[in-house]
Each structure stands twice: as C-alpha cells, then as structure tokens.
C-alpha cells in the first residue's frame, strides 16, 4: 500500500475510532464513530454491501455497474450487541463489527472465518489532487487462493500478484502486462473449500494486492471515491459467480448468428474484396455468418460514413451478402474528426456534446482520422444522441457494431489528461473518476441505438473496454494480441477469467492480431476458439499483406480448420443453451476446473483444462509440434469425444494430439444437442435435431433451450425449455424428457445416438412402444434411432 512520501502527495493514514452509536433502518445498519460512518446493507442472506463515509458524509449512491434489477431478498436478519463487538446475523452468515475500530470478521454459521479485516478500512487525504485514497486490507486465510479480476493475462490463481484497473490500450501486451483494456474490480477467495467474492464498486483507478507486498495480507484501494464493496458468499464458487451477476446484471440472449464463426481483417477493402471473401467461404464450404468491416470502410475514417470510392453502394453490398447468409458488422470508434463540414462533428459542437478540458477548451487528440474530439458518454443526453446516429447504418443493413479505441485511447497521449471534465449523469467530475467507464458507456449507448433501430431483431455489439456490468449489452474480445504460442495460452486464460468475472461473451483474435501465424498455430487457435462464446479471426494484415482466412495456410490446414468450424456449428444448440443458462442464472459459460471441483486442490492452479457449459471439458494444444498432452480430469466419468473411450476422473491422463484432434471430453450422462451440417445459421431449420447421449449409471440432467434465434419473442413465451434426465442402470438405459414452451421449432424429429452402452441392446421402447430393430440401429458402441421430437421416455434394455 502507498505510504506518506516526501513529495507531500499523501497525508498520514487515518482509521476509524470507537463506535459510539448505531441504528437500523429497514435492511440497513449504520454505525457511527467520531467522524466515520459504516453502512451495512443486507441485500440477501449471502450478499452484504459495506460502505464507509470517512468524514461523516456519504457521496451520491450511484453506480454504472449495478443492475436496476438487483433485488433485495433478506429472509431473516438482525443484530446482537456484545461488549467487544456487534453481530449482524442472516440465515447464512455472521458479521462481527469491532466496537474499537470497525474491523470486520465474517463467518459461516459454524463459526468458520470466511473473511477477516487486517487493518480494515482506512484512508488518506489526497493533498495534490483532492478527495481521499480509500483502503481496505484483509487477512489472507491459510491456503487461500484468489481468482477473477477480468482479463488479466496471468495465471488463474492470483495469489502473490498485484493488479490495477485503469483501461489501457495495451497493443501487443504480454504475459503479466497490467493494466489492460477492461476494468473489473471483482475477485474470489477460496479456502477450506469455501468461496466468497468481493466487488469493489469504485470507478477511479483501483489497485488490488493479493499478498504481493505482504504475504499474509490482501488489500484493495482507490485514488478517489468511496470504500464501497459487496461481499458475496457461496460457499460454492459458481454460486459466488451467480451472486455477482445478480448485482451487475445478466446478459441478454444474442442473435444466434453472433455465435457462429466471424471473419475480420484490418481491412477488407474495397467492396469487391469483401465479396471475394464471402464467395470463398461458400465455395469451400467453410461455415461463416459474419464479416467485419474495419476502419477503411469509412470516408477518411469519419464514423457513420462510407467510403465513396471503396464502398459506393453499401446497401447493395450488404443485401448481396445477406442473400448468401452473411451479416455485416462495422467498426465505430469514439474519435470524431474535427471537420466543420462533417455533420456528426457539427451536431456535437452545436449541442456541447464533446468532452472539455478544465479550462473549457475541447479535449482534442489524434486518432485514426487525425485531430478528433470525443463525446462525453457520461452525459445521458449524449448517449441518447449517439444512439440515434445508428439509424442510417441499420437502414443500409448493418446488423452489428464493433466499438474500438474506447479506453479511451489517444495517439501520443495514451489517453485523456486527468483534467478533462465529464457530466457523470449530473455529478460533474474529472477524468480520474470517468476514465474506467468511458468505453463502458459508449458501448451502452451503441447497444441502445442498435436495439432501437433493429427491433424486433436483437443487436450485436462488441467492445474493447468496459467496467463491471457491461455484460448487459455487449460482447468483448481480448484486444491486440500477438501471433504466438504464448498468446494462445493467454487467450484461454483471459477468456476463462473474463467468464468468471461476469462476462462470458468473449473471445480472442484467432491466429493473433499482430504478426503472422503458421498453419499449425492457426488451426490450434481455431480449435480453442470453437469453445469460446465469441469466435472471430482478426488480423492486422494491412501491415504485412498476409492473409489470415481459414484457407490461407494450404489444403491440409484448411481441412482441419473446416472440420472444427463445422464442429462449432454442430454444437450451436448446446452453445446457445449454455448462453441461455448464463443469461438466466448468471452461470459462467467457461469454467476453470476449480469452479467445478473446488474441493479438489489439484484443480486450483490448473489453467489448461476448462469446462465449456455443463458437459464439455476442453484442453487446447498449447505447444508447437505437441504429439501428446497430459490432461487432468476432475472427479466423475468422462468420454473422449473422438472415440468414446471412457475415463475415470481424479487423475492425470495422456492423450495423443494429432493435428486434426484436440483433447475434448464429454461428461458421462450428458445430452449434447447438435445441428446437422450447415454453412450459416439460417440453414438450421431442417427436419432433424441430433441428440448425442452419453451413458451413465449416475442420475444426470441436461438442458436444451431453443427459440427463433433473432428476435424478442422469447420474452413473450416463444421458447422451449427442454429438460432431460438420465436414470440408467448397468443393464438398462433410461432417458426422460420434459418439454416446456410455446416455440414451434422447424424440426420434427430427434436423431438420437446413445454412446457407451455397456450391454447389447435387445429392445428399444419409445413412450412404451417397441421400436423394430435393424442393423441401422447399431453402430460401433452406439445405438441410433429417430424419434418424434415430442417423445417423453426412451428405454433401451
């Protein structure tokens, strides 16, 4: 932690003194010392907010992160007074507040310490810049591990690390580069098999120390604002994740096509080249749904314009692509070119919409168009104006928007100076407070505009920078990465970490944005990206002339890329169902092994394996020329996807890694829904939906969620929530299905494949009716049959 320096920047540290009185107002408790006030808000039995007023005056209770749908649901809570402390109790926790110094100790009902203050809350006056630096330090419990914090490019376990949140354009970042683009001040603690989370809702530059400065202390602090944090108890890591998203909000379902494969380059130019790329995908039968247009589609890099030379007829181009099953996503940056003949610039000047310096001058800086000014997205009027600018793009057929450079990034300067002023929804603050939410609010306004003009269709937005809670309106990619094997590992770790930090709709630039991958690295990246919710190839190939499409590396690599992109499309029903679970419950789509086996210490430091949804365990091939890989399987039984070999968990196994395979396992008992072979999602409406069912004697449950895929009818009941339960025995397979919903899916049949039966099937019953058996019903260790999609019970014996 920062101490007093000879420069006089910081004053001495201050601490709360003895609590003199307290009061209760509804589900709020207030504790008063001579100067300090502690507010304790009981949100639920497991979610508690702690908020401190160092000098007796709370700041405005306002947050860009907290969802307006946050519900308070405490069932039974109260307070006991003791000689040395106060005890606030809920049905899951005990919170002890020391009378002498306000230090906190939080235990479970059995008295096990979950989280305990070290110095607790304290502060310094920030003499140079004003306000206070607010701190909180806590004891690290024995054998405690830490996770979360967004896209930090380092090991999953954060113990021994120090992290900073200050959105930064980190071009070509490397392992342990910090800070990066996104600002997620939320972490997990895990010890003795019990998990909690802390979300420090403060938009100033924040720092988190997980035992780096002092090995037994974790601390977090901000150079301004309030000490305001939420404590979230599990005790399961997955429950902490769900609790965090109950605070910051869950994602909307995206259009299904946004979960397909996306192709991007800086830049596809002119329109003739875009058409050539689209034609190659269809000619080569490589599935693809989206083509992105980078900055060169604009007229002189002016946002909301089209190049007269390169894209003279954008509506015609987009319709031609749409007829082939492609959607178009265009980039929009925050920098608005200083040009008195440019309508967007004129509107912003006339209405005072651009950021200004402290003395009233416009905030000007160079980005792609040259000298630019920048909208103040913290002003609700500006957000409304910005949203309205997307009408013309939607009118010509654009279906998605990609927000870049919104940390905010400025050439030469890095970012905005601290004296830039912001409205901050009526508060009037400096850039010190608004920096970490600038890109967050840009993408929010973008999503609002796209939603308005695309209605009833769903918008798709992708952003580079954000603050906590942005999952409510946008997806993300991990930024300007590098074509290297190290960055392939970073892509996996960053996406896992983002997922457990509330933001599952994330991916990396396949193959690397900077540099040139060889064919092996590219296809290994494709294989990993199949199991990331956002799957997009992107490259800075304008600098080298190098092509980075799936066919750019020769026939052998193209064949492997096609196989795995097709696998992505086969798995889309499963992926969409997993996204629905994330949208409904806040459940991370990507789950580090510790999050599915937190009582197994062998999972805590493992990053190469992760779960994608409930049923798929993935481990990417991470080294050039790798012929086999060691994989740790958590407890349970696991089928190897490529040959149905059954493995028992709780051990390390070795798996061969030929170029056309990657380690992929299916949890025993799972039902995996699959589409047949398609080239884009509009082809999915076929006669059959495939179900791959993996035998287990354990009772297991699986889901299939389906709706129209690209409008909001699901909010009015136009969806199907299908539940499967397998209750098999050693000589009998039983699959039961319950069907809830009103969506009339196009397919009428399920083509079912049962994997791993340990006995020879002699009889098949569908809803009590015998199925005539033929050779077509039997494959190698499988049983196959076609049934009506409304079936309820399948028995094989």
From TrEMBL:
Residues 38-209 form the Glycoside hydrolase family 31 N-terminal domain. Residues 689-756 form the DUF5110 domain. Residues 586-672 form the Glycosyl hydrolase family 31 C-terminal domain. InterPro entries: DUF5110 (IPR033403), Gal_mutarotase_sf_dom (IPR011013), GH (IPR017853), Glyco_hydro_31_AS (IPR030458), Glyco_hydro_31_C (IPR048395), Glyco_hydro_31_N_dom (IPR025887), Glyco_hydro_31_TIM (IPR000322), Glyco_hydro_b (IPR013780). PROSITE patterns: GLYCOSYL_HYDROL_F31_1. GO terms for molecular function: hydrolase activity. Keywords: Glycosidase, Hydrolase. Residues 252-577 form the Glycoside hydrolase family 31 TIM barrel domain. It comes from the Bacteria. This is Glycoside hydrolase family 31 protein. It comes from Chitinophaga rhizophila.
